[in-house]
TrEMBL record:
Biased composition (Basic and acidic residues): 14-27
Sequence ranges assigned to domain NERD in this UniProt record: 53-161
Domain of life: Bacteria
Annotated protein name in UniProt: NERD domain-containing protein
Higher taxonomy: Bacteria, Bacillati, Actinomycetota, Actinomycetes, Micrococcales
Annotated region (Disordered), positions in chain: 1-27
Organism: Frondihabitans peucedani
Xref: InterPro entries: NERD (IPR011528)
One Pfam entry name: NERD
Length: 216
C-alpha cells in the first residue's frame, strides 16, 4: 500500500508553480501596463519548464507503483532528505529490501550505457541519454542510496533510474550502470513483482523510512 502524506511529484510541482509565478511577476514589472500581454506572448523559461516535466514524470511513475502497492509492497513518494534541499522521488519497500527510484522524463531520447576502457585502462561506465553524457543522474541516485543505507542498516538497498517517455528499443533496453538499474515503468513494476525473498519486515522498515525521510 501507499503510506505517508507525500504525493508523487508534489514538491516538483510546487517549485514549478513558484518559478512560474516569479517569472511572470518579473515580466509584468518590466512591461508595466503591457505586462499581461507580455506574459501571454512570452515563452516559458526552459529551467522553469523542466520542473513541470519532472513533476509529470514523478506522477506517472508514482501511479504505476501505487497500482502494485500492498501489504508486502509499500510505497513512499516525494521524501525529503534530512539536511539537504534534495528529495527522493520514490521509496519502495518489499520483502527483499528497499528500492530507491528516481524518475526522469526525457521525451523521445534513448538512455544507453557507454563503457570505456576495461582491458588496459580502468573500466569507466557512463549513462548516455540522447547521445549526451548524463552520468550525473547516476551519481545522484548513488548518493540517495547511501543515505537510505545509513538510515536502514542491514537492509539491502538498490537504486533505479526510471525514464518516462524515453525512446526505448522494441526489445530489451534496460541495463545497469555503476550499480544503478535503468528501467522504464513496466520493467520496473515487473522487477518489483518478481521479488521472492521474505527476509525483510516490510512494515517495520517502512515506518523507519517514514520517520527519517519525511514527506516533502
Amino acid at each position: 500500500m501507499t503510506t505517508g502524506a507525500g504525493g508523487a511529484g508534489a514538491s516538483a510541482q510546487r517549485e514549478y508553480d513558484r518559478r512560474k509565478a516569479n517569472d511572470e511577476a518579473k515580466t509584468r514589472a518590466k512591461w508595466g501596463r503591457l505586462g499581461g500581454i507580455a506574459v501571454a506572448l512570452s515563452d516559458e523559461r526552459q529551467s522553469t519548464a523542466a520542473w513541470a516535466s519532472g513533476a509529470i514524470g514523478e506522477r506517472e511513475v508514482g501511479v504505476a507503483l501505487d497500482k502494485i502497492a500492498s501489504d508486502t509492497v509499500r510505497v513512499l513518494h516525494d521524501r525529503r532528505i534530512p539536511g539537504s534541499r534534495a528529495n527522493i522521488d520514490h521509496l519502495v519497500v518489499t520483502p527483499h529490501g528497499i528500492w530507491v527510484v528516481d524518475a526522469k522524463r526525457y521525451r523521445n531520447r534513448r538512455p544507453s550505457l557507454r563503457v570505456d576502457g576495461g582491458i588496459i585502462r580502468p573500466r569507466v561506465e557512463r549513462l548516455m541519454v540522447g547521445g549526451r553524457d548524463q552520468t550525473k543522474l547516476v551519481e545522484g541516485v548513488l548518493g540517495q542510496v547511501e543515505r537510505v543505507r545509513t538510515a536502514a542498516p542491514g537492509v539491502g538497498v538498490r537504486g533505479v533510474l526510471c525514464f518516462v517517455d524515453a525512446d526505448w528499443p522494441m526489445f530489451g533496453g534496460d541495463f545497469r550502470v555503476r550499480g544503478v538499474d535503468v528501467y522504464w515503468r513496466k520493467r520496473l513494476v515487473s522487477r518489483l513483482l518478481a521479488e521472492t525473498s521474505t527476509g525483510i519486515d516490510v512494515e517495520k522498515t517502512t515506518r523507519l523510512l517514514e520517520s527519517v525521510f519525511r514527506a516533502a
